[in-house]
């Protein structure tokens, strides 16, 4: 506005107005500060509320689980306690072996397909690719019990394979697939375009560029994704619950029923024998150790990637 | 970028990075490599079609003969039926919504504290710790709830809650309470999805540009005003995403709920009484199920699938809409 300059100079009324403004601004400032203090304190409180149950959980897990991880735990098959020997629980070697076998088979099934689909999604602009992307993202959020239902209806009912490790691995592979696909796609998209263009400018065919330049540079990201997929699958109970059959045998054969660590936790937690309920804590601790090692490995891989690209 | 939130930030990558080569656009790229990739994609498409198709197919008899009973019926009489799923549907909604409220209210405050109030040196350690906790298998949370919390609830917390006014209307009949309950399941679910929610929202909040925060501070805004008026609005897309991811995890949780909800198929609005959820009911009943009951459990699976897919659809729509709104500004 151009008539600002024509405003009259303040008169004596203005002094009181000025004070009024100062008073109000002081008051609001005090109010704002008070609200801010209260809210930040509340935030800090929620941090404590979060920490308490989680720290308590970890503490109890270690306190109750560590004494159970004995030599017998790793080497013997389970026994059923009886009135004569209420503490004879044996070990969980069958579940440990079963968990490892299940996840290795699942990784063998899922990783090749997942990585190839991920590369395709990153390199293609077709409608098919965007449809697959939506499917992968939707499946990544699907409840894991559905993978178990799928494995039951497809592998057990349609293919007539009995309760077996391979049925469980199939369920876990379906669970891993979307995780691997999404991670691979991001890793490939993260490869700088200049690398691709350099390859193409040297006269390499597009598929050579993809195979020799893009995939090797994206490899750390892809490996991270695969490790994370395995670390998610190894702790899953629901998909294997319906199809692996359980059993006390030490076996890794794809077609025989196996047990798994999460499954024995689920079943023995409801046991009437205190010794078996105690042993479950050992299995839970072992499972958490597995998952932590895998996640930390993935993190280390991921940070290596950053160092290399810097 | 961390390991958990990747699915949320991924579509931003595509935006600023052109893709050099579209496979199949030129004759030169029609190599064996192209066909190998396509074959893998077709296999994945077949698996996903089979995933949806076979569960729907196996649930066919139930949908053909007793669709109304499954959705509105109250009781579950194995082995011959009727199989009513209303108790499970309501149990799923009750547990996951309470868990979500717990996780979002506490988790948002925690994420804000981690980003703004914790000393810089501790920040990375706490963030890593939270992400590791998000990877802890749900069966471990279930075990903890079942062996530690349930006895404690029964001996200490339940009597206290029952001494509230209107306790019978909210919490239910004390003679039916023995530890495991819908409320306990909701609390454990809340604790379980808390690290997931905190890990993602921490990441989302941490990438809010410092310029915005400093500009706001220099105008005299208090810490809380900066958070309320600048940080939260800027990161709302990611926070939406985190909320939906947490909700999806809570609704689909199986074994933890199977251990601590009590496993009673009864429409239950009294929170301290035992109940069940869709996923956990499938897990507990499947072992002894035969014939019609398998079909009814598969039909519950279809309901769970519908719930999960519609959650993912709604979150996609909301995030897309928010992104458009932000692009206009």
Describe this structure in words.
With 310 residues, chain A is mostly helical. Chain A folds into two domains: 66 residues; 217 residues, MetI-like fold (Orthogonal Bundle), CATH 1.10.3720.10. Chain A is built from eleven helices and no strands. In chain A, 47% of the residues are buried. The mean pLDDT of chain A is 85. Chain B has one domain: MetI-like fold (Orthogonal Bundle). In chain B, α5 runs antiparallel to α12. The two termini of chain B are 25 Å apart. At the A-B interface, α1, α3, α4, α5 and α6 of A face α1, α2, α5, α6 and α7 of B.
Q: H/E element string of chain B?
A: HHHHHHHHHHHHHHH
Output the structural class of chain B: mainly alpha
Which superfamily, in CATH terms, is the homologous superfamily of the largest domain in chain A?
Answer: MetI-like
The largest β sheet of chain A comes out as: none
SS-derived structural category of chain A: mainly alpha
Radius of gyration of chain A: 30 Å
Cα separation of the termini of chain B: 25 Å
- Percent of residues in beta strands of chain B: under 5%
List its traits.
heterodimer, A: 310 residues, mainly alpha, MetI-like fold, 2 domains, 74% helix, B: 329 residues, 15 helices, 0% strand, globular, disordered N terminus
List the helices and strands and how they pair.
The complex is a heterodimer of chains A (310) and B (329).
Chain A: H1 13-65, H2 71-75, H3 93-123, H4 127-140, H5 144-158, H6 165-189, H7 193-201, H8 206-234, H9 238-241, H10 261-268, H11 274-309
Helix pairs in contact in A: 1-11, 3-6, 3-8, 3-10, 4-6, 5-6, 6-8, 7-8, 8-11, 10-11
Chain B: H1 6-16, H2 32-58, H3 60-65, H4 67-72, H5 86-117, H6 120-134, H7 138-162, H8 167-170, H9 182-206, H10 210-218, H11 223-234, H12 236-252, H13 255-260, H14 278-286, H15 292-328
Helix pairs in contact in B: 2-15, 5-9, 5-12, 6-9, 7-9, 9-12, 10-11, 12-15, 14-15
